[in-house]
Amino acid sequence: MTEKTLTTDSLPPLSAYVHVPWCVRKCPYCDFNSHALDPAEIPETEYLRRLFEDLDQDAPLAQGRLLHSVFFGGGTPSLLSPSAIGQILSKLERTVGFSPDCEITLEANPGTVDEAHFRGFREAGVNRLSIGIQSFNDAHLHKLGRIHDSNQALHAGERARAAGFDNFNLDLMHGLPDQTEAEALSDLEQAIALGPTHLSWYQLTIEPNTEFYRQPPVLPADDTLWAIQEAGQARLADAGFKQYEVSAYARPGKRCEHNINYWGYGDYIGIGPGAHGKFTTTNPFDVTRTRKTRLPKDYLNRSRLLIRHEEKVAIDDRPFDYFINTLRLVDGRPAEQFSLATGLAWADIEPTLVRLRDQGLLEWEHGSLRTTERGFLYLNDVLATWLT
After folding, report:
1. Per-residue confidence (pLDDT) for residue 6, from 0 to 100
2. Which listed site, 100, 166, 173, 238, has its alpha carbon 20 to 30 Å from 199?
3. What is the C-alpha separation between 224 and 116, in angstroms, rounded?
4. Which candidate, 15, 26, 49, places its Cα nearest to that of 299?
């Protein structure tokens, strides 16, 4: 493949991801890097000190760019105090800097926050919430191992608005153990009624290294899952939510900018236990992926290196690395971005693109490369093309 020479002016936007590894209880479906701990035992001061060292180490990779977005994920970031969140944001602003409209999102569990917490996070600088509802059905919440109940879920949006948040996401799953189509759509109706600006609505999948994988629950039949997906997408569209990514739906002007940058193959600093990062450099052009020390006890050990793994994406692997992200976006990405993001020439991938276009799976018009409606349904097959 042919590499192009790029300048720092063509570097992608930069975001930051802050991982908080602790939660009150590990959910049986969760394969994220999260670890159950009594909230009173969270070593907040030690953790902040190590996060700041982590950030100082990665800051030069910003290469003069300001942060386009910040996302606190986990685990349960809302277990940290508003003061801690404020200190992290102050450090990010001093060390890297924020763009004028920087989106700052914090994931929150309805069972760990009240209006006072929401208000504290807002005052600390958070301007967007992502609230992990998952279901409004107490029986399903119990099966999922969630620590909140339906009443707390129903009041989450109200409390967020009362605290001053006019932009928040609700995280909702369907295809839950023994869930009927009517129950799944009832959950969706209740979520819409809470007035979120964004919904992450996705099917439960059984992942390795989870309790559900070791002891699989009974999930709905495939025809039920398909009926839920079709009816749910139609209802979301009727309610004014446009799908822009595989599992993301937003009201006009309220797409998650952090998601767009991540799936759009932007760059991001990742700090915290197990956090992933991606960095583009020029002259010579490279795409580098990093992963930090995974276990909290090792991350907090100041005698250990923070970077567990750092690897440059091989030239031949860049098309797959690019498309496994960008083709998740319904509207795709500008065709010219491929060369800017990978350093490769369009001619290197055109034969494959033409083949996929002729199969009715890809299209590029008005300068945008994206999957067709059919291609979106068979996204894994499209992506597999780049592995052969």
Report:
1. 54
2. 100
3. 40
4. 49
Position 176 in a domain:
yes
Q: In this structure, what are the phi and psi dihedrals at residue 63, rounded to the nearest 5 degrees?
A: 55, 40
Assign 388 a pLDDT band (cuts: 50, 70, 90): low
CA distance 192 to 239: 7
Return the sign of the alpha-carbon dihedral for residues 66, 72, 78, 80.
Answer: negative
Residue 56's domain comprises: 8-261
* Cα→Cα distances 279→58, 290, 342, Å: 10, 8, 11
**281 CB-contact burial (10 Å; exposed 0-12 / middle 13-18 / buried 19+):** middle
Domain CATH number, residue 244: 3.20.20.70
Distance CA 131, CA 158 (A): 12
Per the CB < 8 A criterion, the answer to whether 312 and 286 are in contact is yes
Residue 302 lies in a domain: no
Question: What three-state secondary structure class fits 14?
Answer: strand
Cβ atoms 258, 105 nearer than 8 A: yes
Q: Identify whether 319 is part of a domain.
A: no
Same domain, 335 and 215: no
Do both 27 and 167 map to the same domain? yes
Q: Which residue has the tokens 């299209």?
A: 363
pLDDT tens-place string over residues 155-180? 888 899 999 999 999 999 999 999 99
Q: What is 318-383 written as a DSSP string?
A: HHHHHHHHHTTBTT-EETTHHHHHHSB-GGGTHHHHHHHHHTTSEEEETTEEEE-HHHHHTHHHHH
**Cα separation of 96 and 115, whole Å?**
30
Distance of CA 268 to CAs 88, 279, 291, 293, 319, Å? Answer: 16, 7, 12, 17, 19
What span, in angstroms and rounded, lies between the C-alpha atoms of 316 and 330?
Answer: 25
Overall pTM > 0.85: yes
- State residue 129's pLDDT score: 97
